[in-house]
Amino acid sequence: MSTDAPNHPSPAVPPRPAITGTGLTRLAATVERLSLEVREAHAMADGRALVEMAKGVLVERLGCGPAEAARQLELLADQAGIGRLELAADVVNQASRDRFAEVAGELLAPPPADATAGSGRSAVVRLRTAESGALAAGDTQAVAESLLEHALAPLGATAVAIWSAAMDASLTLRGSAGFPVEEAKRWRYVPPGISTPARRALTERTTVWIPELTESGLPSVGHHDLHGARVAAPAESGGRVVGVLEICWPEPQPPQPPQIRRQVEALAELCAHTLESTPGAEPDADGPVADELVDLADVLLDPAFVLRPHLSSGGELLDFRIHHVNNRFVDLAGRPRSSVTGMLLLEAYPLAADEGDLFDKVEHVHATGEPFRSERMALTALVEQVPLSVTAGVGITRHGDSVLVVWRVEDETTRLANLLHHAQRLGRIGGFEEDVIGGRITWNSQLFALYGLDPTDDPVPLAELAGHCHPDDTATITRFLRAVLHHRRPDSTSFRFQRHDGIVRHIRVVAEPVLAGDRLLAVRGAYQDVSAQHWTEVALSATRDQLAHTEQQAAEQSRLALQLQRAIMPLTQPSIDAFGLQIAVRYRPAEQEHLVGGDWYDAVVLPSKQILLSVGDITGHGIKGATGMVVLRNALRGLAATGAGPAQLLCWLNLVAHHLTDNILATAVCALYDPNTRALRWARAGHPPPVLVRDGLARALDNRRGVMLGAISEADYEEEELVLGDDDTLLLYTDGLIERRDADLDECLDWLLTAASGFEGSLERRLDHLLDRSPADTDDDTCIVGVRLA
């Protein structure tokens, strides 16, 4: 009885082609026949390798020789009624207790009714056969072929690629199977920064499942022919992603069960072992790489230390050991360099373990090879149990298996040097920086002189600038501060600066926010004394006088428009409570007087005992917008006395806007509430839809058809009816409440629905809540009419 080959049926292979014909036909048939024989030989060799592994386990456990182990394996297989290859896989699983053994336990458990085909004992044999073939392979190419033939082809996969990750996070195709030779050559190297499935698995450090490659938009090897499902699993060893296993299916695949996902992760671990043990793997940093990294750290002009991974007995990353610190290193806690060297990172700096802090960044760089750089990062150490934090620029890079951390603390000298740089860039005289988080304000000496203060005095915060300017320039300073601190965009303005000693100077101020994502960290800027330019401009007084006269006329018109608007549209009015319907109104005019618009609202009880509700918005600003608003608002009141419905009222109001006014264009919502039936009929003319809040959830009412008023001479409007329930709240508003320059109207409406949902409180408080938290940045008028049925 032979002990070299497993006694199980040979895998089915295609029939060998007959050698017929002449010339190239015979040669092609011969090549195909030899290729089949080579594949059969590899399959048999992988099976024999698995049997030999099992025999080795029996030799160690039974204390017998190889021949006795072979006989015992044969005897046990006959008694169990299974093939010798299946028994060998069981023996190896019981002995190894590795990831493959865990997967085998899942596969051999009783499968659910809808279990995936291919689970069970045959899958365990395939996994162990693939493992034995990979361990016996001489290179990564052979490993890829073994994985595809034994473990992945039965799952429907048709191609596999094994990528190795370099220190710069680039990817090299170390082995592949199922792809054309030219395609594999074309993808032999992927530079850093190219987005592929393997790149995502490397940087995200998780298995990436893509149901259909064409829909993901990610290119990869073979994506022109194999555009079905893809999976990319990181091959991790000792806390470092050494490569990626990528598997390809020709067709889209449904979500895979946990057993298949465990198999893929186990195969990725096998690839990690292969990539580390085959020629071409990255050199270990214990040798020349570590020495060169230490030399590099010592010549740096900034503090730096070299970290080495600290692994558990099972190969898991626990911490990083401080292998070396350079002579520029200064410990935050005041410890000498010799006491820090050799310590674990979390022992030396336990607060570095906070989420998103230094340890997370080091661990990610070590795992993926992606370098990390931050201009402003908080470094914290414990000094006698008291946290001490400094802000520093930090850079982290991986070299082999080691990590180099370099930082530069932002001290007072560095901060002033940065201020000088920004001063030169902005062309200023006095520079400043305000730390919004810490509240620290830094001025240079020129700015103290400009303010007429002693260098020992406290700097003046930017928010208090209005208290040092001429009263006529208060509005200018208010707009400037709103742009920088509220809208977080760079801005500049000129104003008359009044010092405490009575001297008045003409100043230009420039400021820009420093952001980290959406978070405001600081404000930097400069003051420039432009008094000389101002007095030079006085020579052009004649032209300026004429300009001032024109501006005065415009200001008078703006003030007149504002007075007219406020006379008809007060900012607030007492709540109306009629027939059980509570009505509240809020109105906020434009911040800039010359932008006074034509927003209007109305809420009135008609002779029919119905309640008319309306909001509208006139295009344009100033006198024209204000007078147009008066015309349409009063016209709607008069037309509503006829008893017509909202759709008819808008038809008539459109005729007024088109024929009886000076080219007025407007949007509006008109609604009539009947207290007897609780029915509210409404129609709209190009206006944002009303919002209904019911049971704590807000939704926009269905958009009814209707063009804006005055656009065409004849227009029809659709009418909708809504029955209000107890505690229902209806909101009518103008676009000044929600509109933002950086978002479309649907996104703005989503904010309103979110803000209106779940609010508890009176109707008055609800309107104040919406008005105070409005994200609108168009400086437009805002009207809100709230209706609540008690």
From TrEMBL:
Keywords: Hydrolase, Transcription, Transcription regulation. Residues 31-92 form the ANTAR domain. It comes from the Bacteria. Residues 8-17 have a biased composition (Pro residues). InterPro entries: ANTAR, Bact_Sigma-Reg, GAF, GAF-like_dom_sf, PAS, PAS-like_dom_sf, PAS_fold_3, PPM-type-like_dom_sf. It holds the Pfam family PAS_3. Residues 1-20 are annotated as: Disordered. This is SpoIIE family protein phosphatase. It comes from Saccharothrix xinjiangensis.
